[in-house]
TrEMBL record:
It comes from the Bacteria. InterPro entries: BMP_lipoprotein, Peripla_BP_I, PnrA-like. It comes from Paenibacillus algorifonticola. Gene3D superfamilies: 3.40.50.2300. The keyword Electron transport does not apply. The lineage of its organism: Bacteria, Bacillati, Bacillota, Bacilli, Bacillales. Belongs to the BMP lipoprotein family. Pfam families: Bmp (PF02608). It is a lipid-anchor. CDD domains: PBP1_PrnA-like. This is Basic membrane protein A.
């Protein structure tokens, strides 16, 4: 946790300046999980607009198909809501989506249960949340990694290409084989933007490096990630950046087995500092994204009587919303200096990182 403290504090402070809002009231509990609950399109749960600041509310979260224990994106979001419960006493709960078809019914379930706010975690929620928000204009929603143009939705996106450029610099200067890999979940904009930044960072410092890519098509299948990593490592790749949710856990599993066998391979984690889960022995670094802090800040703003529906923000390096962990024991001081140089160029605007794969 110490590794993330400075990063999380900076993004929480930044959010306090970016978002503000006005909300309503309910009870206390820790979260529970479930799937496929549904409610009619007509159901709406309108929080009391005049509720006192600091009231105990009910805030729900629907995961994407990676599940709440993906050790990545969804888990970060749920940790943000758990902190909301700890700090405010408000009730928080999650529902897991086993497939795309579960997303809309799960959102409607929270509306029918009169939750004061409901989060959809991930790009794949865009259509479902658009429908549910339109059907329930008095309910409040938040979405991560997408944007819904509705007055009752707060949309939060991250300039993941910027942070990914920096880990690309690390990969390009660390590789010994000049073979680097990218393993993605689904080939959608919220994932390809990572690849675009990563590729640009690698090429900026090591134009001779060859970058392999593999999109598994899934966010919750570790076996697919393990198989994709095995193919790359067998081909001589020695650094893989995984952006695949629970599927990416399989990349770590494959790398760990090879490390134990004496092979010098690395994984770059995503969203969270994944060395906490998988260890520094195999984690070169991670591309952090402030999902936990975003969920926490918007939710507590609502609890404290502030709500600005219709707000859409994109947060990047200048906001402290993406980047590397504070401690990177596997990266040399010279490489970190180079990372900092590129970081300042991106923040100043002298370097514009691509958002699309070239």
């Amino acid at each position: 946790m110490k590794k993330r403290l400075g990063f999380m504090l900076s993004i929480v402070l930044m959010f306090a300046l970016v978002l503000s809002a006005c909300g309503g009231g309910s009870k206390t509990n820790n979260g529970a999980s479930g799937t496929n609950a549904s409610a009619s399109p007509e159901a709406s749960a309108a929080p009391e607009e005049s509720a006192a600041a600091g009231a105990k509310l009910k805030i729900g979260m629907v995961t994407d198909v990676g599940g709440v224990n993906d050790k990545s994106f969804n888990q970060s979001a749920w940790e943000g809501l758990q902190k909301v419960t700890k700090d405010t006493g408000s009730e928080t709960k999650y529902l897991e989506s086993k497939g795309d078809a579960d997303m809309e019914p799960n959102l409607r379930a929270f509306v029918s249960e009169k939750y004061d706010m409901t989060w959809g975690v991930g790009f794949l929620f865009q259509d479902a949340m658009g429908k549910v928000a339109k059907d329930n204009p008095d309910s409040k929603f938040g979405i991560i990694d997408s944007a819904v143009d509705a007055p009752n939705v707060v949309s939060v996106n991250f300039a993941a290409n910027e942070g990914s450029f920096l880990v690309g610099v690390v990969a390009g200067l660390t590789t010994k084989s000049n073979k680097i890999g990218f393993v993605g979940g689904m080939e959608i904009p919220s994932v390809t933007v990572f690849e675009a930044g990563f590729n640009a960072g690698v090429k900026a410092v090591n134009p001779d490096a060859k970058i392999s890519r593999n999109y598994t098509g899934e966010f919750g299948k570790p076996d697919l990630g393990k198989a994709a990593a095995a193919v790359m490592y067998n081909d001589g790749v020695d650094v893989i950046f995984q952006v695949a949710g629970g599927t990416g856990n399989g990349v770590f599993n494959e790398a760990t087995a090879r490390k134990k066998a004496g092979q010098d391979v690395w994984v770059i984690g995503v969203d969270k500092d994944q060395s906490i889960e998988f260890g520094n022995e195999v984690t070169l670094t991670s591309m952090l994204k402030g999902v936990e802090a975003a969920i926490y800040q918007v939710s507590t703003d609502l609890i404290n009587g502030k709500w600005e529906g219709g707000k859409s923000v994109v947060l990047g390096l200048k906001d402290g919303a993406v980047g590397l962990p504070e401690n990177n024991p596997n990266i040399s001081e010279d490489i970190m200096k180079k990372v900092e140089e590129y970081k300042q160029q991106i923040i100043s605007g002298s370097l514009v990182v691509p958002t699309e794969v070239k």
